[in-house]
Amino acid sequence: MIDWDKIKAEYIRGNTSYRRLAEKYGISGSAVKAHMAREKWTQAREERRRKATGKIIAAAAERDKERADRIYDAADVLIRKIAAQIEAAERLCATDASAYATALEKCKRVCEIRGAADGEELEGRVVVIPARVPVEDEDNE
């Protein structure tokens, strides 16, 4: 007796053709093809592939989100450290001010990238860096 459920499951699961299954189980290709058509094996195989692809995409998206969260959190820590250094400085030379501005600009870009994806989550998050520290030219030091 032919176990059509087993043959169908093997077809849906794998990358084998109905002809190979026919050879493997010693039945005619036309018999397998008839069962395929009647029971819509091809559609079932495609549906299984779509679901598998969806799971792969969802897992990749989750990894990307976790990575983006870590990058955003690191940028946030860096922004706080820069702000603390600027606040603690009695004097700030132009080179330091430029380096801080560059670092902050890069952090801002990181936050904006995430902000495009998670705008609502970021609403209300503003980092203010006090302008109390005088910036002096390096030549005057």
Q: What does this protein structure show overall?
A:
Helix content is 74%, strand content 3%. It has 141 residues and is mainly alpha-helical. The chain has a two-stranded parallel ribbon with strand order 1-2. The N and C termini lie far apart (95 Å). Mean pLDDT is 81; it is low at 126-141.
Bin the helical content.
Answer: over 70%
Distance between the termini: 95 Å
Which stretches are low in confidence, meaning pLDDT under 50 for 5 or more residues running? 126-141
* Cα-based radius of gyration, to the nearest Å: 31 Å
Shape: rod-shaped
Structural class by helix and strand composition: mainly alpha
What portion of the residues fall into strands of 2 or more residues?
Answer: under 5%
Summarize this structure as a short list of keywords or feature phrases.
single chain; 141 residues; mainly alpha; 6 helices; rod-shaped; two-stranded parallel ribbon
Helix-strand layout with pairing:
Elements: H1 4-13, H2 18-25, H3 29-39, H4 41-88, E1 92-93, H5 94-117, H6 119-122, E2 135-136
Parallel strand pairs: 1-2
Helix pairs in contact: 1-4, 2-3, 4-5
Give a short summary of the structure.
This protein is mainly alpha-helical. Helix content is 74%, strand content 3%.
